[in-house]
Batch of 2 targets.
Target 1
Amino acid sequence: MRRVFTGHPAAPGMALGRVRLEQPARFSIDNTPLPDSETDAEVARLERAFAVAREDMAELRRKLHGALAREVGEFIDAHAQLLDDPELLEGLRAMIRKGHYRAAAALKAQRDRLVAVFDDMDDPYLRSRGEDVDHVIARVQSALARQTSSEEKKLATRVGEILVTESVAPGELAHMAGHGILAVVARSGSPYSHSAILARSLHLPMLVNAEGVLEDLRDGDLALVDGVRGEVVVHPTAQDLAQYRNWQREALREDQRLAELAHAETRTRDGHKLRLFANAERPEDIERARALGVAGIGLYRTEFLFLASTGLPSEDEQFVAYRDVVLSAGGLPVTLRTLDLGADKADAAGLVAAAEPNPALGVRGVRLSLRQPDVFVTQLRAILRASCYGPLRILVPMITDATELVEVRRLLEACARDLRTAGHEIPDQFELGAMVEVPAAAINVRALLDVADFLAIGSNDLTQYVLAADRNNDQLGKLYQPSHPAVLRMLAWVIGRARVARKPVCLCGEIAGDPAFAPILIALGLDDFSMLPDSILSQRDALSRCDRKRLRALAPRLLRARDNEAITALLDKAQPAA
Ligand code: PEP
Ligand code: MG
C-alpha cells in the first residue's frame, strides 16, 4: 500500500529505485555462528580493530597538551595496557576459532564477563576499573564497526538502490557513489552537512531527518524519492510514476533552456560584470564546470581525496591528482584548499581523533594540519609541484588568527626551497589565501588582509559559528539562517574590508549558488561567487535579473534590518519583476 514519509530536502532531484535498508551497526550484534571457512578472516579483522584502537589512543596521547596531559595520559596508558594484555586478545581469538563467535559478539561476551568480575569486587577502586574495560572494549568495537560498515557498504551497495540509513558520513558517501546508488534517505542529519553538500555535487537526491523510515521500510520496497519536496513515496501508484516521468521531461527542458546561458558572460541587469567560479571535489566536476563557462575553480576541496582512499595518499599520489586538476582546468585558475578534515569529516587513515568532545570547535582544518606537520608538508609539496602546470592558488581552511596563515606561508616557503634544491621546477611566487569562516577571522579581517593574497568566505561554517548552531543538527534548522542580519553584517564587513585592501574576495558557501541570495549578495558588494557546477546556470540567470545600482543603494538599510522579514520586504521592493 502507498505510504509517504517526509523529511527535509538536502539534495534536489527525483529517483525511483529499490530500498536498501541499513540499520545502525550498534543496534545489532550478529550472534549467528561463524562458518569454519571464515574464522581466519574474522581473527584478522579483530586484530586490525585492535591495531586501530591502539593507534587512536596513541594519537590521543600525542595530542594532549597542558595541565590535563598527565592526568588524562595516565588513563590512556592504563587503557593501552589493557589493550596490550595478551590474554584478552588470545581469549577472543579462541572464542572465534573454537567457539565460532563473530568478532563483535566475542567482544561483547568478553566485556560482559569481565565487567561482572569487576562488579563483584569489594574494593571500590578495583570495582571502578570495570569502567576502563568497558571503554577499551567500546573503542575496539567502534573500530570494528567502522571496518564492517565501510567494507559492507562498499561491497553490498548495488546499482539502482536507494540507501535508507540512520546517517551517512561523507567518506562513506564518496565510496558508495561509485557503486551506483540513486538516492539517500537518512533518519538524522542536516542539509548543511558535508554529506549533503557532497550528495548535491554527486547529483544524488537526498532527504535528511526522515522519521520512521528505518522502522517501516523494508529491503526491496519500491520507492520514489523527491529531493525537492522532501518525500519518499513507498509503493508509488501509477499517478506517482506519471509525475516522475513529468519531472524527468521538465528537468530535461530546463537543462536545455539553461544550456543557452552556458557561455554567456555574467552581468547584472545594469551591466556590472561578475565572476562565477565552481566548487569542485572531483576531476569530473571540473570538466562540467568548464563546459558552463566558469571563470575558474573557486574551491577545490582536497579532503575528498583523503576520504575516498583507505590510507593516507602519498606525495606522488597527491601530486598526480592535483596536477590533473590543474590540467583539466585548461588554463583557468584553480583554488586548491588544503585539508579540511575534522568535525564531520573523519578520514579512513585515522588522522582525526575518534573522540573529541566538541569536534566542530576542535582540531579541524588548519588546526589539524599544523599539528600533523608530516601530513601537511606532504600535501604542500604535492601542491607546489602541481603548481607548475597552470595557475594554482592555495587556500587554507578554518583560519582563526593571521599567525596561522603566516605559519603556513613559512612552511610553504621551506617546502619550495627543498623542492628546488631537489631539482623540481617551482614557480617563484604562489598566492596564498585564507578562508573566512570563523567569526574571529571575520571581525579581525584587517589583520588577515595584511598577510593573505586573497580571501574566500566560507558562509556555511561562518553561519554555524556566528549563530552557535551546528550545521549538522537539523533540529536547529530554524536558527541556522545564512540570511540572519548578524551573518549579513559580517559578510558585508569582510567584503568591504577586502575591497578597501584591493584584495580579491570570493564567497564559496552554499548561498553563493542559491538564487534567493543573489540580490542580497549583490547588495553587499560581492563580485566573485563560487558554487557547485549544477548551480552555475540558474545562478547566472538570477544574477542577471539583479539591478546592482538599486541593490547597492539599499545596502545601508539592509544592514540596519532587525530580522529576516525586514530583509525580505526590502529586497522585494528593490528587485524588478522577472
Ligand atoms: C564553508 O564553510 O562555507 C565552506 C565552503 O567550506 P565547507 O562547506 O567545506 O566547510
Ligand atoms: Mg567550511
Target 2
Amino acid sequence: MELFEKAKPILEKLIKNGFEAYFVGGCVRDKIIQRNVGDIDIATSALPEEVMSIFPKTVPTGLQHGTVLVIHNGEQYEITTFRTESTYHDNRRPSEVTFVKSIEEDLKRRDFTMNAIAMTPNNDIIDPFNGANDINDGLIRCVGDAKERFQEDALRMLRGIRFVSQLDFRLNDETYNAIHSNKELIEKIAIERISVEIEKMLLGKSPKKAIDLLIKTKLLNHLPSFQYCTTQFLELLDLPIQSLKDVEEFWALILYKCNFENPEKILRSWKMSNGRIKQILNIYDLLIETKIEWSNTKLYQVGLTDAIKYERLQLVLDHLNANELDEKILKSLYNKLPIYSKSDLSFTGNDLLEWSQIKGGPWLKEVISEIEYLIVENQLENNQLAVKEWFGNWLQK
Ligand code: ATP
Ligand code: MG
C-alpha cells in the first residue's frame, strides 16, 4: 500500500479527537514531484502529551521539539506539534520551540517554499508560499527573507544546495546571493550535520551542480578541510563523477584529488566511524599506487568489492563513465581464486611444527605466507599431501 494510505488512519484519528493534522515537509514535496517518498512527516495541533494519550504505541523521541514517534502497523511516524522556532543562538538550530495554533504559522518556520506545503488526508493542499509553483519551475526559494533564514540556521544553505543535487533544481537569485553573503556562518554548524548534507549532495542526481555552487558561492572555503581546495574541486567538475555509486568512492576520490598530507586525520575530523574510515582509506591507498594489474595475489589481498570500486574510480579519472565497468572480468577472476582467506588453507601452523619437529619462531609465519602465496597463484595445490611434500623439500634447503 502507498505510504500515504498507510498513514491516513493516524491523521483521521487525530482529527476525530478534535485536532488538526496534516502531511508536511519532504513527503508532500516528493509526492508533488512524483519522486519516491522517503518518510512521512505529520504536523498536528495536538500537544505531544495529547498525541501520546491518543495512540497506544508512542515513543517520546523529541519532546523538547514537540515530536512524538507513533508506531502504527509496524511503521513509525514522526508527529510534530505546530511550532515556531523563536530563539536562535549562534546561527544554529534553536534549543527551544514555541507551540503555535495554526498550520500556517508552522509552515512559516520551514526552510524552502517547496518544503512548506501541507496536505490533508483528502489530498487538499495548503500552500501559503506557492511552493507548488516553485516545484513546477524547479526553483528552490526560501520562505521569507533568505538572508534572515540563513542567519537563523546556517545549515539551510547546505540543505538548499543538497536539494539542487537531489532534485536537479536551481536556487533562485535571492537564495544564491544570500548564501554568497552568509557563507562563513556555516563554520558555526556541527560537522555531523554538515556531513549528512554533503553526502546527500554527492549521492544526488546532479552532484556537479552542487559542487559548482559550493565553489561559486565560496561556501566551499568555509567547509571543514576544504578551505584551500577550490582548484581541486574545479577539477572534479571535469570528471563524470555522477556515475559514482557510493559515498566511500566519492570520499576516496576527494582525498586523492586534494592530496591531503594526512587523509586519515581529515576523515577523523569529519567524525566518521572507524569502519567507514577504513573502507575509504583502503580505496584511497589503491588509488595512490601505480596502476594496478590484477594478479591472483593482488585480488586476494584487496578483495572483490574494493577492486571494483578502484576500477570504477580509475574509469572516472580517465573521464569515462563508471557504469561502463565490466565487472564480469574481475568477478570471474575472483571466483577462480583457490582460497579467499588464511582460514581456507588446508593446514595450520601446528601441522607445520608437527611435520618439522622444529621449535616455532619467526620462520613459521614466513613459510606460511610463502605457501599461501603459492596456493593463491595456483603453483601449489591446497591439500595437506601437496603442502607436506613442498614443506619437506623446503626444510631440506
Ligand atoms: P529528506 O527527503 O531528505 O527527508 P526533508 O525535506 O524531508 O528531506 P527533513 O530533514 O526530513 O528534510 O525535514 C523535514 C521538514 O522539516 C523539511 O521538509 C522542512 O519543512 C523542515 N526542516 C528541516 N530542516 C529544517 C531547517 N534546518 N530549517 C527549517 N526547516 C527545516
Ligand atoms: Mg524527511
